[in-house]
Amino acid sequence: MRDLPRLPSSPGFWRSPLRGPWFTSVLGLVLLVGVTVLFVTGLVSYAAYNPGLSPVNDTTPDKGLLGFYLFAWPTGPVWLYRLTQGVHVTLGITLIPVLLAKLWSVVPKLFALPPARSLAHALERVSLLLLVGGGLFEFTTGVLNVQLEYVFPGSFYPLHFYGAWVFFAAFVAHAVLKAPAAVRNVRRRGRRTGELVSPRPDLPTVSRRGALWFVAGGSLLLFVTTAGQSIGGVLRRTALLAPHGGPDPGTGPNGFQINKTAAYAGITPADTHQDAWRLVVTGRTGTVRLTRAELLRLPLHSSALPIACVEGWSTADQWWRGVRLRDLAALVGYEDTPPDVFVESLQRHGAFRHTALRSNQAADPRSLLALYVNGEDLSPDHGYPARVIVPAAPGVMNTKWVARLTFGDL
């Protein structure tokens, strides 16, 4: 018997009987739908930061023409960002087994020789390199950011943003070329010809359908152990692989999820003591300085709003009570429609110490400078003495430990 090939560039090196056009095509069509949803929800997430409003919101300042789709982020429905970002993160994690199985199914192509048989073949190999490399890069950086939160300080957003465009461009080119053939391959279930089929396959230990069920089972397991962090309720306890899965981190009115603690942000009791803290509000007619006691004498309003974070986790609706942003704008000369507002925090460490909100966000009657949550004072970790809460905004836009509000052109 002749020796088996030892080089991965030889077709006989890859002997799995599972590889073939049908198996690869099924996985490819799943990714065609899934990756498209991931890309769209990722762009939506970036738009939610309102990067065109102010440089402090623009985590990718050199985006150029890639920001053509940006639009003013709405304030309703209040669960909008909770839904879009929950889908983005949960779907991304759920698709990991499908992506890995797809790469495994086509790995012989990556070692095929010669590297380029023609100019067209060379372009196809380059696009394949961008597709594989871009896919691994996007999924890896996304998972690391979700699990470790601040593993990419100041760099995750541009890396993930530009990587997404490179990956999706290669993905679209590949889909245009391969999707028609993939549909035909799925319909021809018995077809066992093609360059992915081993000329000397091993005996099968599992059927192709069994292998697909194995991949689907892995995806289902990841879904069950992740999705609860954004769905909430009792399902949160099933989100074992999510950074904010499991039960609420505390008890009482303030016992719900947070990212940044007061200690992490460098907030001390002296900063927030009633004798030291003042809210500075600046606008058309000048500047007003308010103590917390003075804020409490203003008309107070309530809003039931969740907090939804870019890492995919969210809270249930919490009952916030405080002064409407539009009423604070009226104190400094904007009695009709409040303009954009620049929000500054006492926070000393970490990202998003400042943020800007659009006029539609400031004008929404549910947008508050919150002083209470669920009937009690804010805890230090939830932003005492005052924090912003805005419907449908990413969690980092709901600035904690607010020190100054500047209404006007930003």
Order of helices and strands: HHHHHHHHHEEHEEHEEHEEEE
Residue fraction in strands: 5-15%
- Unreliable spans: none
Shape: elongated
Query: Largest sheet, described in full?
Result: 5 strands, mixed
Structural write-up:
It is a single chain. Strand 7 (368-373) and strand 8 form a beta hairpin. The N and C termini lie far apart (77 Å). The protein folds into two domains: 11-238, no CATH class; 262-407, Sulfite Oxidase, Chain A, domain 2. By secondary structure, it is of the alpha+beta class. The protein has a five-stranded mixed sheet. Strands 3, 4, 7, 8 and 9 form a five-stranded antiparallel sheet that branches. The protein is built from twelve helices and ten strands.
Outline the fold blueprint.
Layout: H1 21-48, H2 80-94, H3 96-110, H4 119-148, H5 156-187, H6 208-224, H7 228-231, H8 262-265, H9 269-272, E1 279-283, E2 286-290, H10 292-296, E3 301-305, E4 318-324, H11 325-331, E5 341-345, E6 354-357, H12 359-363, E7 368-373, E8 376-377, E9 387-389, E10 402-407
Parallel strand pairs: 1-10
Antiparallel strand pairs: 1-2, 3-4, 4-7, 5-6, 5-10, 7-8, 7-9
Helix pairs in contact: 1-2, 1-3, 1-5, 2-6, 3-4, 3-6, 4-5
